[in-house]
Amino acid sequence: MENISVLDAGILALLGYAVVFFGIILLMVVVMVMGKIFVSIENKKKADLPTPAPVAAAAAPAAAPTAPGSAGELKLHDVEPKTAAMLMAIVADKMGKPLNELRFISIKEVK
Amino acid sequence: MVNVGEILLNLWNNSGFAAISAGFLDGGWQNLVMLAISCVLLYLAIVKKFEPLLLTGIAFGCLLTNLPGAGLYHQELWDQFMAHEIGYGTVLLEGGLLDIFYIGVKTSLYPCLIFMGVGAMTDFGPLLSNPKSLLLGAAAQLGVFVAFFAARASGFFTALEAAAIGIIGGADGPTAIFLTSQLAPHLLGAIAVAAYSYMALIPLIQPPIMNWMTTPEQRKIKMVQTRTVSKTEKIIFPIVVTLFVALLLPDTAPLIGCLMLGNLFKETGVTDRLSDTVQNALMNIVTILLSTAVGATMVGSNFLTAQTLLIVILGVIAFGLSTVGGLLGGLVMWKLTGGKVNPLIGSAGVSAVPMAARVSNTVGQKNNPSNFLLMHAMGPNVAGVIGSAIAAGFLLSIFGG
What we know:
The complex is a heterodimer of chains A (about 110) and B (about 400).
Chain A: H1 6-48, H2 54-58, E1 75-77, H3 81-95, E2 106-108
Parallel strand pairs in A: 1-2
Chain B: H1 4-14, H2 16-22, H3 24-46, H4 52-65, H5 75-82, H6 88-94, H7 97-106, H8 109-121, H9 125-129, H10 134-139, H11 142-154, H12 159-166, H13 173-183, H14 188-200, H15 202-213, H16 216-219, H17 231-248, H18 253-268, H19 272-296, H20 300-303, H21 306-336, H22 355-367, H23 374-399
Helix pairs in contact in B: 2-3, 3-4, 4-19, 7-19, 8-13, 8-18, 8-19, 11-12, 11-21, 12-13, 12-23, 13-14, 13-23, 14-21, 15-21, 15-22, 17-18, 18-19, 22-23
């Protein structure tokens, strides 16, 4: 195989690229099936959770604590004011815009 | 009475200076040129910060191997080894320090251990949440096969050498070293230097291609957040990948096996000590040995050839075409999803974790400062590692036997 012709090299190049795609597509299908199984298990678990009592459901949702010092709009959900300030400063810095030109509505920790 | 003059004369005759001056026309000049090249590489690593963790070792290995009379590395021993005239035992008995380091490259030990560290540092979550991004990791292997074909068509390289050159397009150092040490060990120095240099230059190589192949509107596309991946999924994934990929292409088993073992250490939650060791201590130790050993192969007579220059040219073509392949894949996904996918994430499919993903993010933010593509680009980026390992496995299965 050391001195294959240019034509053979071309065929092998095409074949190689196809094999990479084949391997990756095979893997993708497996990952997708795996994902679907896990999502359905997750949904089933959520559905099996006991529904809250009607009284609790009827109760008006408690207002999220408002961050002190912020124009009264920003809602913080499980986020320390210090962390929120740091996040807002990072976003402003990354966007290259002054902080007072940005409007933050809520900051929530994604778990 | 001690003959001081004779002692001094002997010292001079045994020195490298005498060896260079006596054999200047018979290879001595090559040593001097290589020493100068090693200093340039050290400058690039230390001052310009081109992959400093690897290039410093490579450059210093190159410096050590080209010191006449030092006897740290013996090319002739490895030539005999390749001709099956001697074995590792002879290398251990007669070789120098760098010959012993090099055994780890020749046996593929170092690239595999580095892959274990890479696996322990990689989060496959973005890929699992968006499995279609795997396709971009495959599309971005275009440069590997075009460069292989171009190298063979040039007539300057055998098919084995062309395969080793092509893998530069995989933008994956350990994979390039793994394949080259098997197929064309005499080109190892040139290929490793080209691969690592271009990886360091990704922020310069990729953006012009990305801007050329996409419109400003496409670059501004914001992608929606993908689903959360459970811990169990992350634990099962490395086992599934090892089974599927190694069964499909058994030659990839060392690389994929180590990559996924490292990842399993990270994800199990019960092997934190091992994960920490693989990511830090082991990775650092192997990096020192690997880089120095690769640098040691840069012997003047092997390196100062027209082939090296061609490898450098073909390497940049391979890198560029892999970026083009990834972006083409990204554009196809953009079209098929009705504009939901930002094609910039395709360029991250060239591997080079996480630099290529960062470049996708940076170029995206230049067009839309509130666009954060990093997590979306990490999927194709880690898929590129798997893709380049499959490409290497294919080439090894064809030419390795």
